[in-house]
Amino acid sequence: MHYPEGMPSPEELRQRIENGIPGASAEVRSVDGVHFDAVVTAPSFDGMSRIERHRLVYGLFENGELGGAIHALSLKTETP
Amino acid sequence: MSEQTENTLRTAIADAISSNEVILFMKGTPEQPMCGFSARTVAALNALGASFAAVDVLPDPRIRQELSSLSNWPTIPQLFVKGDLIGGCDIVTELYESGELAGTLGVEQPTEPAPAPPAEEDGYSSPPLEIENNLKG
Questions:
Q1: Which of B78, B90, B100 to substitute to test the interface with A, most A CBs within 10 Å?
Q2: Shortest Cα distance from B120 to chain A (angstroms)?
Q3: Is residue B14 scored above 70 in pLDDT?
Q4: What CATH number is associated with residue A28?
Q5: B116 contact residues in A (CB cutoff 8 A)
Q6: Rounded to 5 degrees, what angle do the CA atoms A57, A63, A66 make?
Q7: Is A4 contained in some domain?
Q8: Which residues from chain A sit within 8 angstroms of residue B76, using beta carbons?
Q9: Which of residues 53-72 of B touch A (CB under 8 A)?
């Protein structure tokens, strides 16, 4: 599918998550370029609550980006 | 917008969170959710027969803004139980599917929980927007 210029792509999101969380691997999908599904696996999630894991990922995005250019980011977090 | 109004709003949100054992901040109302993620979260709570207060964040963007800065959570919906943020749609759905949500809410787990309905995309066929928040016990 074609992603409009200036809009985030699943590949960009994947890189951002993997660069932002040491050792993380992410699978990111989107059917429409604005709603994203991500499965993130990271060793640093170990010992963290669900809330803390989600906050860590959300923290990689600019203020207003989630709910803005990225309408929604559905997250599943796992440890390796 | 004066600083005082923002503080008043933030205080009202904090009061709502502390005075309702289970409270959901959502887009739309439990009867007419305006977003698939809010709908899915309501469905999980309803499947457990939980009673909850609900606040529609849509009538005024400041509600969402103040809520997010208060909770340190960027997205809607947000579920609070006994004053603590439980999470958004993903976490509530995970907790529902694992059976943990009933314990969190202090309700009985049904013997055969129905799977949560799939999240639908935004854009429910626009029902009239309710202006007042829907706070119910």
A1: B90
A2: 11
A3: yes
A4: 3.30.300.90
A5: none
A6: 60
A7: no
A8: 67
A9: 72
Q: How many domains does chain A have?
A: 1
In a domain, A70, yes or no: yes
**pLDDT, tens digit, for every residue of B36-49?**
999 999 999 999 99
Tell how strand A72-78 and strand B22-26 pair up.
Answer: unpaired
Specify the 3-state DSSP secondary structure of A61. Answer: coil
Helix-strand-coil split of chain B, %, nearest 5: 40, 15, 45
The domain in which residue A59 lies consists of 10-78
The size of the A-B interface in CB pairs under 8 A is 38
A37 to A10, A42, A76, B20, B101: CA distances (angstroms): 9, 16, 8, 31, 22
8 A C-beta contact, residue A21 and residue A56: yes
Q: What is the average pLDDT score of chain B?
A: 85
Q: Please report which helix (H) or strand (E) contains residue A58, including its range.
A: helix A50-58
- CA-closest candidate to residue A33, choices A14, A8, A16, A57: A8
Give the ipTM.
Answer: 0.88
Helix (H, G, I), strand (E, B) or coil at B104: helix
B42-94 pLDDT tens trace: 999 999 999 999 999 999 999 999 999 999 999 999 999 999 999 999 999 99
B90 min Cα distance to partner chain A (Å): 6
pLDDT at B127 over 70: no
Q: What stretches of chain B show up as alpha helix (H) in DSSP?
A: 3-19, 36-47, 61-71, 89-98, 100-105
